[in-house]
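User: Predict the structure for this protein chain, please.
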Amino acid sequence: MIELRPVLLIVGILLSTLGCAMMLPALYDLAAGNDGWAVFVASSGFTLFSGGALTFANRGASGDLSIKQAFLLTTVSWVLLTAFSALPFAWSTLNVSYTDAFFEAMSGVTTTGATVLTGLDDAPPGILLWRALLQWLGGIGIIVMAIAVFPMLRIGGMQLFRMESSDTSEKILPRATQIAGSIMMLYLGLTLACVFGYMLAGMRVFDAVAHAMTTIATGGFSTRDSSIGFFDDVWVETVAITFMILGSLPFVVMLQALNGRVARFIFDIQVRWFFGLLVFFVVSAWLAQSGGGHQVGILEFRDAAFNVVSIMTGTGYATRPFDTWSTFATTLFLVMMFVGGCAGSTSCGIKVFRFHVVFATVRQRVLTFVQPHRVVAAYFNGKPMTASVSRAVMNFVFLFIVSFGVVASLLSLYGLDAITALSASASALANVGPGLGPVVGPAETYKDLPDGAKWILSCAMLLGRLELFSVLVLFVPTFWRS
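Assistant: Here is the predicted structure, written as structure tokens:
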């Protein structure tokens, strides 16, 4: 059997940290004279008690985690953190069920951005700050996992980014703790820069802080019902586009650029593919508006640029109901939901590096068929890829598509129309946020979906954020055998 004490010890520490984080919105509500502070104090006390109990009961259970323990910790920690993060929503004056509260918390922790809440313009400030804080914490959490945990688990081809197996020259810093600390400082620095950018663009301080946390985390929660569209300001949108892109770039490569290795950033294959796809989708979306009877001018280009960046990076902000532009535009945005940003970023989706690996693998196979005796190697960033990486990526893409079909089929059992079921499934698995159509479109929320559909989508958000395999492996009987 798997030794659970080390796992429970870490979960206890994480819950204790979450309980401390709940005091931030409590203090803000208290300073603002809002009664909501009591809800956060109660939630914090319960979370701290639970986390402290787990930590105390399992103290002394230290040592390196095994692969099985790492798999278990990855899923259990995210589920329990979500369950406790939902308490302020469930106990607040928002009058939402625990199902809605869990959905909102899962959307926050996984940086998805789908919401069931309305009336955000008049919501308690503590709740708005808590939503933003959840996404900010989830964003840094997924970066650390993508660098430290997922490569160790060798899921979905993430072993390409395994720092331990790299040359000394490839390591940005000699110690893993330094790497984590440097990434945290970069993440915090980008957040503060985004805050100042929004303030210079005319946002109030509170709106600037909340939006900066969800922008750099590519989460998409807003303090307004109409999202970024509420401000209707080209400078606000420019700041958002800039930092959504920065949040979708590999943080390790950005650190290398800051340490003087700018060429490493410029020639990184992920970065080049990401910007190439971004330009292609922006131009396509811009031209697609003509199919819906819209003029194709500078204002339409602005709408196309913002919404394409928002959807492809998985942020989920919206300025216009892009699903009404044309049929081609609707299809284009559905495809974009699957793409995502770079590995080692706060972004989501299948991720750009996997599309490059698929392309390189297919190219290798085609050339081999044409010239059977020719030795053709598939490369990633100038280095030959092993067959295990190609298989892992192919398996991940196949499983992602299968999961998309299964989730969409389950949603259709609740009577949802095809576009709602398909787009909600893609949006949840790719951690994007808004779907398409009149039910879950960019101007709507997930509030009116049946409770069963919300639980299915909550599971899909977790699956997508944790790279599928780390969750599904727990349902394999042999995983629990010695």
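The longest helix spans residues 125-153.
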